[in-house]
Design a protein that fits this description.
single chain; 3-stranded mixed beta sheet; Epimerase; about 325 residues; Rossmann fold; alpha/beta; about 40% helix; 12 strands
């Protein structure tokens, strides 16, 4: 493996960015965090002397180039609202132009299973055809095609790292987060069903060290790779384990496709979940044997341990809210 220069995390304030930043920091590598505003990255990374915090305007090509100036590798984690997926391809096009102008050498897109559409039997490896049948899948496919087409142009090497659904301590955007919060707060958990179909989740802190290694593995570029979780598990089993840690029986309110469609009449975000509900009934499970052959064994947190850590974080957050509420009440 090759020593590498400074890494920039574009759109880093989320859970994936924090995982990658932690892995970079653990090996003493300086990194740049790039966000639309300064406050979220300051809150997430301001404690780390290895972190440089920069703002950008992703609609302005000059701002993109300045944000990428001096970086060897860019890791792209930029999200858009679920009902604005059409923004993904043009945003990627502008970003690639900006990083190329800045002389960036390597570009990693953290991708999803959306571009595949329905799996032709699980687990799937990277030979699975990319045939999305949803609008969001087509937008993600267009996004990653831009990344792959840029490989070898103007000194830029690119790759896509495809992850399954994720979970972990304090990760609010995880499908499983409601389970941990419900267990920690002795409430009914709201989940998207069905809940008895085996599903793959990656414990997101496991992803950071893999991405860090890929930034210094030149032979990885020019294609897409899979990063799998620790096997499959049902949401009902996750709930059973999480509520058991709280000494309670699981309590779930399950929203299936019909209920999501009904809720979508009043909530645009719920409406956007309907077309992707096939991933709950027909999950995509990833085979990452090609990646392990390239970089060696990958550490994977077992579900039992990941569930415990996620529950502990939810319980600590609930306790902190209770203390804050009590202090506010006394002050009133």
């Amino acid at each position: 493996m090759q020593a590498t220069g400074k890494v920039g995390l574009f759109g880093a304030a989320g859970a994936a960015g924090q995982s990658i930043a932690a892995a970079l920091s653990a090996v003493g590598r300086a990194y740049r965090v790039v966000g639309r505003s300064r406050a979220p990255p300051e809150a997430a990374f301001g404690h780390d002397p290895l972190a440089e915090i920069v703002t950008w305007n992703p609609d302005d090509p000059a701002s993109i180039r300045v944000a990428a100036d001096g970086l060897q590798t860019v890791i792209y984690l930029v999200g858009v609202p679920y009902d604005r997926f059409a923004e993904h391809p043009p945003l990627m096009e502008r970003t690639l132009a900006g990083v190329t102008a800045a002389g960036v050498e390597r570009f990693i897109l953290i991708g999803t299973v959306y571009p595949y559409g329905r799996a032709r039997g699980n687990p799937i490896d990277e030979t699975q055809p990319r045939e999305p049948h949803t609008f969001k899948g087509r937008m993600r496919l267009a996004q990653e095609n831009l990344v792959l087409a840029a490989h070898g142009s103007n000194g830029l090497s690119t790759l896509v790292l495809r992850l399954p659904d994720f979970y972990g301590p304090g990760i609010e955007r995880s499908l499983l987060n409601g389970v941990f919060e419900g267990a920690a707060n002795a409430k009914r958990a709201q989940v998207i069903g069905p809940v008895d179909v085996p599903h793959e989740f990656i414990y997101l802190p496991d992803a950071g060290p893999v991405v860090e290694k890929l930034t210094r593995t030149p032979e990885a570029y020019g294609r897409w790779w899979h990063l799998a979780g620790a096997g499959t598990i049902t949401q009902r089993e996750v709930a059973r384990q999480a509520y058991a840690l709280a000494g309670r029986e699981p309590s779930l309110m399950v929203a299936g496709k019909t209920l999501l469609r009904l809720l979508g009449l009043f909530n645009p975000m719920m409406r956007e979940l309907v077309e992707m509900n096939y991933l709950m009934t027909e999950p995509v499970v990833l085979d990452d044997s090609a990646l392990t052959k390239l970089i060696g064994p990958i550490a994977r947190t077992p579900y039992e341990e990941g569930i415990r850590r996620s529950f502990d974080a939810a319980r600590a957050a609930a306790a902190a809210r209770a203390v804050a509420h009590g202090s506010a009440a006394r002050a009133a």
